[in-house]
Design brief:
- The chain has about 210 residues and is of the alpha/beta class.
- It has a single domain, classed as P-loop containing nucleotide triphosphate hydrolases (Rossmann fold, 3-Layer(aba) Sandwich), CATH 3.40.50.
- The protein contains 6 helices and 11 strands.
- A 7-stranded mixed beta sheet has the order 3-6-7-2-8-1-11, with helices on both faces. Strands 4-5 form a two-stranded antiparallel sheet.
- A hairpin with a 2-residue loop joins strand 9 and strand 10.
- The longest helix has 14 residues.
């Protein structure tokens, strides 16, 4: 990557299905944002949850929001919450607020609108939550953000319009899921459930570049 002002970038490039337990273990030891790229949404989510369960945040919530097929207004409320000032909509906390001290996994991040990309970037910069319809107040939360896409974020298609600064912040650690990956099958002569085993030995580490 050409940008380096915020320090090291980390990458795990899916060397094969057999590498996944080790890569999950490595990812669980850090607290940086992770972008997971894989063809199967359920596999992406399973890997994100495995990382969460092995991390220091395991005792806190793991919440998922899927950008695919969701309207911009609903997605904004799901993420940031709303105050319900219209007398019809009930006030609610968003996932980012409810997952305080835990992890939020945003699936299909490539489907997020440009406006919400800007709001998410602002959240990553200052850690403050502003609910939909709320006055500017500080609700600072501590969450780890994981996101996923199917590879389209790195496509060269001219119609792709994803916030470059946001992508840089989300892609601090990049984990590529090699197809096909089926969580309930044997992985490298060990049960795939060891992805969720916090006591499993950690072999190797991510590389900085």
């Amino acid at each position: 990557m050409s940008r380096s002002s915020t320090g090291h970038r980390w990458e795990r490039l899916g060397g094969g299905v057999s590498e996944l337990p080790r890569e999950v273990a490595c990812a669980a030891q850090c607290d940086m944002p992770i972008l997971i790229t894989g063809e199967e949404p359920e596999d992406n989510r399973a890997v994100a949850e495995a990382i969460h369960r092995r991390s220091r945040r395991a005792g806190a919530p793991f919440l998922t929001v899927d950008c695919a097929g969701m309207s911009e207004s609903l997605l904004e409320s799901k993420l940031f919450g709303c105050v319900g000032t219209d007398g019809v909509t009930r006030a609610s906390c968003g996932c980012l607020e409810r997952a305080h001290s835990g992890t939020v996994f945003i699936a299909n991040i490539d489907a997020m609108s440009v406006r919400l990309q800007a709001l998410l970037l602002q959240f990553l910069e200052d850690g403050d939550i502003r609910r939909v319809g709320d006055v500017p107040v500080h609700r600072r939360v501590d969450v780890r953000l994981m996101t996923s896409d199917d590879g389209s974020l790195f496509a060269s298609a001219p119609h792709m319009s994803f916030n470059e600064d946001l992508l840089y912040r989300l892609n601090v650690m990049h984990l590529v899921i090699p197809p096909p990956f089926r969580l309930h099958e044997i992985v490298s002569n060990q049960p795939a459930e060891t992805l969720f085993d916090r006591s499993a030995p950690i072999g190797g580490g991510a590389r900085a570049h």
